[in-house]
Amino acid sequence: MSNENQATLPDPAEAYNNLFEGVHANVFFGKLANHGFQPQSEKEAADLLQLAGRLRHVDDTEKAASADHSRFENPLGALDGVLEGTSLGNVKAAQAYNEESQAIKAAAAQLAAEPLFYNSVLSLKAHEAAVLEQQHGGN
Q1: Residue ranges per structural domain of the chain
Q2: Span 67-120, pLDDT tens digits
Q3: How far apart (Å, rounded) are the C-alpha atoms in residues 72 and 55?
Q4: What's the alpha-carbon Rg for the chain, to the nearest Å?
Q5: C-alpha dist (Å) from residue 136 to 102, 130, 131, 133
Q6: Contact in structure between 65 and 73 (CB atoms under 8 Å)
Q7: pLDDT tens-place string over residues 122-138
Q8: How many CA atoms lie within 13 A of 21 on its CB side?
Q9: How far is residue 27's CA from residue 4's CA, in Å, rounded to a whole number?
Q10: What is the phi/psi pair of residue 25, to 5°?
Q11: 25: burial class by Cβ within 10 Å (0-12, 13-18, 19+)?
């Protein structure tokens, strides 16, 4: 990468904020809006983001705790779900999954075309590569 290109990239902290505010927060608040929840102020928005972060930590903790119960619990539950579903239900679920997958790919392509997000990803990846090189002594 030339020095000219590096000069146009945001620093890693700014790049992270660009992606968090422009992508993560929009997706998060979009999902909330789909369920009828919209923050009424900046404070509510910040509180919702903190709540989501704390709930994610609780969910991760519960997953780790439940991992001690049985290695086969999740596959068994998935198999039960398949066996209980009708073939029409499975087809609809597959269609919904494909539609969601296509929507995610379309959104990713749209975001990648946005220079702010594209450069932010490049900045974070360049920073990650520099950290890895430093950790491994340049080898």
Answers
A1: 13-69, 87-139
A2: 566 767 777 777 777 666 555 566 777 787 888 888 888 888 888 888 999 999
A3: 25
A4: 21
A5: 38, 10, 9, 5
A6: no
A7: 999 999 999 999 998 76
A8: 10
A9: 33
A10: -65, -40
A11: middle
